[in-house]
Design goal:
Elements lengths: L11 E2 L12 E3 L8 E6 L10 H17 L5 E6 L5 E5 L2 H8 L4 E6 L2 E4 L12 H8 L1 H6 L9 E6 L19 E6 L29 H10 L12 E6 L8 E3 H13 L4 E4 L1 E4 L6 H11 L3 E5 L12 E2 L7 E6 L3 E9 L4 E4 L1 E2 L11 E6 L22 E5 L5 H10 L4 E5 L20 E4 L1 H13 L3 E12 L24 E4 L2 E5 L7 E5 L1 H18 L5 H11 L4 E2 L5 E2 L2 H4 L6 H6 L2 E4 L3 E6 L4 E9 L4 H8 L8 E13 L8 E2 L4 E4 L3 E4 L11 E9 L9 E10 L6 E9 L15 E6 L2 E4 L4 E3 L7 E5 L5 E10 L5 E11 L8 E6 L2 E3 L6 E3 L3 E11 L10 E5 L3 E3 L3
Parallel strand pairs: 8-10, 8-12, 9-10, 12-14, 14-16, 16-25, 20-21, 21-22, 22-23, 31-39, 42-51
Antiparallel strand pairs: 1-46, 2-41, 3-5, 3-6, 4-5, 7-11, 7-13, 13-15, 17-18, 17-24, 19-23, 20-24, 26-27, 28-29, 30-32, 32-37, 33-34, 33-36, 33-38, 35-37, 38-39, 40-41, 40-43, 43-46, 44-45, 44-49, 47-48, 49-50, 49-51
Helix pairs in contact: 5-10, 6-7
């Protein structure tokens, strides 16, 4: 019998799988996914907060005893005590409700499936690690400041690391660069499976990499050999949380276990190039990561690759408080495998098409064009037999698939294909069949294609495959990558925090995968920041995570958005802006807080206090790096404001508005002098900043900008980004999909709506289901049960905090009622007797006041009759 389980995220109905013509009253089973794995949070604080291990063991024992007494059936998977107190269990519908009502249970949450923050098939551009270092100032930090990250340990929670790679040290264990780590999952781990055996980790002390992603991430952090990463002197801890077989998901509980291992191994920095979007900072994994930060470890995480699904989509754990959430920028250049063309041996970088043989590294062949730079359907129709024999065809993108174009060239005798784009930038093509493509196929930019086309129009052109690299300019240089997720977090906290180069970055890959290659995503941006943190900690070893974040954000540089309206890109997309690690290291002053989350502003203005302080902790190093001496005069900082673009009300399809806040200061300048000049009060200063949102009538909702402090000594500008919500945040509608929420019954063919009510036996799958569209994250969802005959409440069928929104404007979550109720967390679970009931499903909106009825939305179900046999 098909199992379905209670709770948010446990069954997700993808309306993308339905035709718009289908009735919303009948939902197919094919659009659902299920889980039976749950976090059970217990009430005690974890050991990192000072609670004794014995106390937590007693608390867990009491939980098991209470669960047994309540008749709850479950299987424990693993428990957590260091960073988060609780356990993960496998349990079905009624049992989950029973667990929620047990004494000492703080909450029950689904264990999410976590994806690598890698863009699988990026439509655009291919950045290069070499030029990426120049974008972030890492090249200056290495060459001029002499920093390598030496003495700093960086934990990489990922697919493992190919420690045999010479760029990463060539060995594992004591004396090696990868000297710590653990494989938490084994090769066979499959988080997509509902088979408990498949989801049971098979630990191995050797965290080798069979996927490639973790090796790529580690190379960006600190490769030192064929390529050089941001911090080539660091050591690594490798914590493998993904299995083999091409799977790109793991689960929250495995990652939490890895965080605990990283703490025990005394990592200084932890990088997580992974995440689940649309979650709250209160999610278990985000809370665990925040606790790690609070106890001295800098945690850096990818903001996510959900740019296509709109606002409030940043990933957990990056949304955790004080976790550094990293957005992705496109790079200035591409560094790609190259071919050359006659007559002058011009090198042209290319991207090899997936689904075709690997291009050779030698050999010369004549080229031929099958169209021109204006042909819309180049090679979409069969070409004359033998017309391309022994030649490489130049073919323009457009009209038909890359597979069809390549197959037509192959059938005409071509020995290779060079595709070129019909718009600016690169394309990352696939020619996977059928029919099968048996010749090499590569893609170049529109500009490079036009160059080859022009030469062919004038005469013969010979193409030579090479083993060399070519650097190509990037059409979207310094722009936020299209895939990079939008913030803010659902509680309007400041996310993402900063940006770094992402896109397709060239870095290390496992030796069996060729040793080097390009990957894309905020996965590749996050390790730039993790490596930069290592450089900063080498230079300033006493800096705590708060100072690290302040320095990174103060020194970052915001970038423009492409297109109309013009202006700085959204603060809730790029955070503080592009990482500038050299400035972060050498800055003489720190501004705190280093970012401002203004929350919702229904009317008027908000005043915040900033404090600018001279750094005293590493004065002699600071003087050496900046050239300042004891006799230098005080520095005058002039205050200013750089507004950024706002976004409108639509969550799923953001609109961009040149609607700017007004910022005023209680003083135009501040003056700072070193305390050793005898001015005890001059080492820091307070600044009151008043921010007035743009007019609400203009449609701007999430708005932001940058407060600037420009020093008189020619040093780098310090910045403090701010973001806020313009208006009443609780006016965002949650139940926006017509016909939903609604009561459903499960049939062999799918879920069938029961708007007139229905009878259920409450056995097996014959229970009441509710399909709900959440247009925005909600602080709480309750399902209260009322007896129709008496009007009396039987308490709750469900009570869940901090729920995500749906991933699309038509997506649905599924909740279920199996006939049991509970009064509150820690209370008893009761079975409703046979009878007729109604359920009031209510949601408390994000940041809503539970005392204010206007902050709720409600749905009352039709009659639900329980008729147990």
């Amino acid at each position: 019998m098909r199992k379905l389980f209670v709770g948010i995220g446990t069954v997700i109905v993808s309306m993308a799988m339905m035709s718009h013509a289908q009735s919303p009253q009948s939902i197919p089973l094919s659009g659902t996914e299920t889980t039976d794995l749950w976090f059970v949070e217990l009430s005690g604080e974890p050991t990192i907060e000072g609670t004794s291990l014995a106390s937590l063991e007693r608390e867990e024992s009491a939980f098991h005893a209470a669960a047994t007494a309540a008749g709850a059936r479950y299987t424990e998977k693993q428990h957590f005590r260091d960073l988060w107190n609780g356990l993960t269990v496998r349990a079905a519908a009624g049992d989950v409700a029973r667990l929620r009502g047990l004494p000492g249970v703080q909450g029950v949450y689904p264990v999410g499936k976590v994806k690598l923050s890698q863009q699988e098939d990026p439509p655009g551009n291919v950045p290069d690690l070499i030029t990426a270092l120049a974008m972030t100032g890492a090249d200056i930090a290495q060459s001029e400041l002499g920093l390598t990250g030496r003495g700093v340990h960086v934990g990489v929670i990922d697919t493992g690391i190919d420690f045999d790679h010479p760029d990463l040290g060539g060995c594992f264990g004591d004396g090696c660069r990868v000297d710590k780590g653990f494989d938490l999952v084994g090769d066979a781990f499959d988080s997509s499976s509902d088979d408990p055996a498949a989801n049971t980790p098979m630990p191995d002390p050797i965290p080798d990499d069979c996927g490639g992603h973790g090796t790529h991430v580690a190379g960006i952090i600190g490769a030192n050999g064929g390529i050089k990463g941001v911090a080539p002197g660091v050591k690594f801890g490798a914590y493998r949380v993904f299995g083999c077989g091409g799977l790109a998901t793991t689960s929250d509980d495995v990652i939490m276990a890895a965080l605990e291992l990283a703490r025990r191994d005394r990592m200084d920095v932890v990088n997580l190039s992974l995440g689940s979007g649309r979650l709250w900072p209160q999610s278990p994994l985000a809370k665990a990561a925040s606790r790690l930060v609070n106890h001295g470890v800098v945690v850096v995480a990818a903001a996510g690759n959900d740019g296509s699904i709109g606002l409030y989509a940043a990933s957990s754990p990056s949304v955790g408080k004080d976790v550094i959430s990293v957005a992705s920028f496109d790079n200035t250049h591409t560094n790609l495998n190259a071919l050359s063309i006659s007559p002058d041996d011009t090198k042209i970088g290319y991207i090899a098409a997936t689904g075709a043989p690997v291009p050779p590294t030698s050999g010369s062949f004549p080229m031929v064009r099958t169209g021109t730079t204006t042909t819309a359907n180049d090679a979409c129709n069969p070409l004359p037999a033998g017309s391309l024999t022994g030649r490489i065809a130049l073919i323009r993108r457009g009209t038909c698939s890359f597979n069809q174009k390549s197959f037509n060239a192959q059938s005409a005798g071509a020995v290779g294909v060079v595709l070129y784009n019909n718009v600016a930038g690169f394309v990352s093509p696939t020619v996977a069949g059928p029919p099968a493509i048996t010749i090499p196929v590569v893609a170049v930019t529109a500009a490079r294609g036009a160059l080859i086309d022009g030469r062919l129009a004038s005469g013969a052109v010979i193409l030579t495959w090479t083993n060399q690299l070519a650097s190509e300019p990037n059409a979207t240089a310094n722009l936020i990558s299209g895939f990079s997720s939008y913030g803010a977090a659902p509680d309007l906290s400041f996310k993402p925090d900063i940006g770094a180069p992402g896109g397709l970055v060239r870095s290390t890959l496992p030796l069996e995968q060729g040793g080097y290659g390009v990957l894309s995503g905020t996965s590749m941006a996050s390790p730039h920041v993790a490596g930069a943190v290592a450089l900063l900690l080498e230079a300033r070893p006493h800096a705590d995570p708060k100072e690290v974040e302040q320095r990174l954000q103060n020194s970052a540089r915001p970038h423009l958005r492409s297109g109309n309206p013009a202006g700085l890109d959204n603060v809730h997309r790029q955070g503080a802006g592009m990482l500038q690690i050299n400035d972060a290291v050498t800055a003489d002053a720190i501004v705190s807080p280093s970012s401002l989350a203004l929350g919702e502003i229904e009317s008027g203005s908000v005043t915040k206090t900033l404090r600018i302080s001279l750094d005293d902790g590493d004065r002699h190093d600071r003087g050496r790096r900046r050239g300042r001496g004891d006799d230098d005069p005080p520095v005058i900082y002039t205050l200013g404001h750089q507004p950024a673009l706002a976004t409108g009300e639509n969550t799923f399809t953001p609109t961009f508005l040149a609607s700017f806040a007004t910022v005023t200061f209680d003083q135009p300048t501040v003056t700072l002098a070193d305390r050793h000049h005898g001015h005890d009060d001059d080492g820091d200063a307070a600044i009151n900043v008043t921010i007035t949102p743009p007019p609400q009538a203009g449609g701007a909702r999430l708005f932001g900008g940058y407060i600037t402090l420009t020093p008189s000594d020619g040093g780098s500008v310090l910045r403090v980004p701010y973001t806020g919500y313009n208006g009443d945040y609780q006016q965002i509608q949650v139940f926006t999909r017509a016909g939903f929420p609604q009561l459903f019954k499960l049939t062999p063919t799918g879920f069938v709506a029961q708007p007139g009510g229905a009878t259920f036996t409450m056995t097996g799958d014959d229970i009441a289901f509710f399909l709900v569209h959440l247009n925005h994250q909600v602080a709480n969802l309750k399902m209260e049960v009322f007896d129709v005959a008496t009007g009396k409440s039987l308490n709750f069928a469900d009570d869940e905090d901090f729920l995500p929104r749906n991933s699309s404007a038509t997506g649905l979550f599924l909740f279920a009622w199996d006939g049991t109720t509970f009064k509150k967390q820690g209370g008893k679970t009761r079975v409703a007797p046979n009878g007729t009931y109604r359920i009031e499903l209510s949601v408390l909106k994000a940041l809503g006041d539970p005392r204010n009825p206007a902050h709720f939305e409600r749905f009352t179900s039709p009659n639900i009759t329980i008729a147990r046999p």
